[in-house]
Amino acid sequence: MAILVIAEHDNAALKAATLNTVTAAAKIGGDVHVLVAGANVAAVGQAAAKVAGVAKVLVADAPHYEAQTPENLAALVQGLSSGYSHILAPATSAGKNVAPRIAALVDSAQVSDVVAVQAPDTFVRPIYAGNALATVKSADPIKVLTVRTTAFEAAGEGGAAGVDAVAAGPDLGLTKLVGRELVKSARPELAAAKIVVSGGRGLGSGDNYRNVLEPLADKLSAALGASRAAVDAGFVPNDYQVGQTGKIVAPQLYIAIGISGQIQHLAGMKDSKVIVAINKDSEAPIFQVADFGLVADLFTAVPELAAAL
Amino acid sequence: MKILVPVKRVVDPNVKVRVKADGSGVDLTSVKMSMNPFDEIAVEEAVRLKEAGKATEIVVVSAGIAAAQDALRTALAMGADRAILVDTDAEVQPLAVAKILKALVDKEQPKLVIAGKQAIDDDSNQTGQMLAALLGWPQATFISKLVPGADDITITREIDGGLEQLAVKLPAVVTVDLRLNEPRYATLPNIMKAKKKPLETVKPADLGVDVTPRLTILKVAEPPTRSAGVIVSDVAQLVDKLKNVAKVI
User: Fold this and answer.
1) What interface predicted TM-score (ipTM) does this complex get?
2) B232·A111 Cβ contact <8 A
3) Residues of chain B with C-beta less than 8 angstroms from the C-beta of A101
4) Given A135, A174, A183, which is nearest B219 (Cβ)?
5) What is the pLDDT of residue A32?
6) If one looks up domain B2-245 in CATH, what number appears?
7) Which of B127, B129, B167 sits opposite A97 (nearest CB)?
8) pLDDT of residue A238
9) Local structure of residue A44 (DSSP, 8 states)
10) Preceding omega of A141 cis (within 30 degrees of 0)
């Protein structure tokens, strides 16, 4: 049986999360097919065909896939599902949105946020904000999984898969995209960055967040992140949030500044290779997971650190 | 418009759970339980819609053991009108919950279902999307704003890299994110009043739903622990460690 990976893309380029998902699919074993559903997505299909380990690319190109609404996308995948033993999507906002809809349509109990593949029907996933790891076995004929991208390497280039056009599914017309406000940033994408500079409530305000953290992030070519407390206080938009209900990151270096280290935050960053914590409270729980801790006033220590690099 | 809100009783978000020594699950004996925080936001939104004259009745539903009534009573105290407990001792997984909710939606005929985006115990993030699929309704997940119209709702949802606005035809299922609202605390008089509000109990079989788990949990283990590192004395020492010990910059 073959495995279907639902590609994440913006109709112009393939998103990196797809590459990690292809690696997870390859670990299950079987032909890996990638579905690119969108509008005018020939280039995305070609890019997917070059990913190592991909046996075939399916392209569904139709205007009603431009916004990639989950209703239309899930209906399309349901139509294709009979040829597959597994359907995988990355555990990103888009993947989390559509995968359960697909799972219900094919009557499958989804396994969310897979961090390891133990057998074609057995997977490991975090529960309770990552405070426990559950090994779960699925008995469903079609297994639907979302993949935690930080747990799998990105598949490389070097593939030469065939690209097949597939007929579009129905346009259900249930939702209409009114608009998107995407933050344009020259910084690396938070979930894929090698270095993340992250700020918490200790920064006190949005202005302080920017004035203190941006020079350091600039020096390190780092992505900027935040704790939920900083997001809730309105310092930064939600898509900066690292944690159980935000983004899961595992960079080479994670610098937590003015972050106390609630379990919900640790759930999103504790797999980082090296963790640095800067906090004036020596009792802050963040120091229990930090490789290097600096007990100091962040308003003096962070500019000093930026200057020293 | 009638609104249905599913709620779940979960381990309180401030509790750090421990894995049982035999690896069969996490130890929930004498641990503080609460309503799932995202479900509180869902209830709050429904109550605000009712206060604004946009909703007529709020029905809250929970599937689980008899103690799940606690979450329902809290929702009633926040302002929901009546509650349905789907009483079962089985471990109800998201697909089974979605099937239970589908049966109740068929019976209750709400125009809108407002659910939390995920439960903080199993972190599945599935039920709302599954319910929408089973009903053939549109879905809007992770919403941070909801503006009701006559035949549709306009919502803002949080996506990677920013925000998205969708016009969603009713009936619909939405799942809520943290920034939608700040849930109220139930006041003591309202907690007293909630005890008199109707709470109906049904069994999954009454709804024609088989809740037998489809996923078998083979093992639950502690994640690898990270040991605390060193405390550095100043910025210069930190830079030295990062450059020469960790070699990450």
Assistant:
1) 0.95
2) no
3) 129-130, 132-133, 139
4) A135
5) 98
6) 3.40.50.620
7) B129
8) 87
9) H
10) no
